[in-house]
């Protein structure tokens, strides 16, 4: 299931050491480590490029702040757009507990009506995590979030992968559902599937490029994390660190994109070409 048409391998290699700040939630750290390392590297590069220590970051569908609060703790200003009042209330509480309430703003809205609540072209970095699966028109959703970027900016896109769902259903013994997910245009395994849509790496990179961005990096997320028994990670000495390193090593290899639970694409504004 390798992909010979993948984008060039990026030099943005995730380092599996920066997301260990919450030892009480090892499984959560495991599932977000690759994305966080790539995102933090992108933020650091934008800080260097702009000469500003504090960036303006938009987190669409950011919920209770799983990424927004850590980004704010780095010193950046974060606006979270989410349709759920309960999630925004949890975000406010979480930001206050982390001491970053002055750098985190939550507003109710969604990707479809994004510019009803935020400024067009007002952000250095936009996060679009777990959003495309649920919008009616993914292409429109990407165009909107890209429209929120400044002329030089970065998009962090995270979405569910088809291959991961196929593998998960097959390993659970649901072979008919696995085949359904494999053949369904939206990657759904049946009517009971809670995820409306899944993607391949090619589909996501195509959406990003059609929206006018270059693809800076593609990573598979949760390649192994969802398959390893939790009791092993939680009780075996050194297992978490070893699995983090394995996830990081496999994340950028195209052969593993096709079986990842999620796919992360880093989109970057294209360098202007000389006349």
Give your account of this protein's structure.
This protein starts with 25 loop residues before the first helix and ends in a 6-residue tail after the last strand. The chain is built from ten helices and seven strands. The protein is globular. Helix 1 (26-50) packs across helix 9 and helix 5 (162-171) packs antiparallel against helix 6. The chain is of the alpha/beta class and 275 residues long.
Count of separate DSSP helical elements:
10
Order of helices and strands: HEHEHEEHEHHHEHHHE
**What Rg, in angstroms, do the CA atoms define?**
18 Å
Structural class: alpha/beta
Q: What is the general shape?
A: globular
C-alpha termini separation: 40 Å
Which strand order spans the largest sheet, edge to edge or round the barrel?
Answer: 3-2-1-4-5-7-6
Low-confidence stretches: 1-26
**Strand composition percent:** 15-25%
Helix content: 25-40%
Q: How would you state the average pLDDT, rounded?
A: 87
In total, how many beta strands?
7
Give the structure's gist in a few sentences.
The protein is an alpha/beta fold and 275 residues long.
Map the helices and strands.
Elements: H1 26-50, E1 56-60, H2 68-73, E2 77-82, H3 85-97, E3 104-108, E4 123-129, H4 138-147, E5 149-160, H5 162-171, H6 175-183, H7 201-210, E6 213-221, H8 230-235, H9 239-251, H10 254-257, E7 262-269
Parallel strand pairs: 1-2, 1-4, 2-3, 4-5
Antiparallel strand pairs: 5-7, 6-7
Helix pairs in contact: 1-9, 5-6
């Amino acid at each position: 299931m390798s992909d010979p048409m993948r984008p060039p391998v990026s030099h943005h290699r995730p380092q599996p050491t920066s997301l260990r700040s919450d030892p009480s939630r090892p499984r959560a750290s495991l599932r977000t480590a690759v994305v966080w390392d790539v995102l933090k590297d992108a933020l650091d590069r934008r800080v260097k490029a702009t000469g500003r220590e504090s960036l303006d970051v938009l987190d669409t569908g950011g919920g209770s702040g799983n990424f927004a609060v850590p980004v704010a703790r780095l010193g950046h200003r974060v606006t979270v757009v989410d349709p759920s009042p309960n999630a925004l209330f949890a975000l406010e509480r979480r930001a206050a507990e982390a001491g970053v309430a002055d750098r985190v703003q939550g507003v109710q809205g969604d990707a479809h009506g994004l510019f009803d609540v935020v400024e067009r072209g007002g952000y250095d970095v936009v996060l679009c995590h777990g959003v495309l699966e649920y919008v009616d028109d993914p292409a429109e959703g990407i165009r909107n979030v890209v429209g929120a970027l400044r002329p030089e900016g970065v998009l962090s896109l995270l979405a569910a992968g088809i291959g991961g769902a196929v593998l998960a259903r097959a390993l659970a013994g649901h072979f008919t559902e696995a085949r359904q997910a494999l053949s369904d245009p939206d990657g759904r395994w049946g009517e009971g599937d809670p995820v409306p849509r899944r993607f391949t790496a090619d589909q996501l990179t195509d959406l990003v490029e059609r929206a006018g961005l270059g693809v800076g990096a593609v990573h598979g997320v949760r390649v192994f994390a969802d398959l390893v028994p939790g009791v092993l990670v939680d009780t075996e000495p050194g297992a978490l660190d070893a699995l983090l390193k394995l996830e990081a090593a496999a994340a950028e290899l195209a052969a593993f994109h096709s079986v990842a639970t999620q796919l992360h694409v880093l989109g970057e504004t294209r360098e202007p070409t000389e006349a």
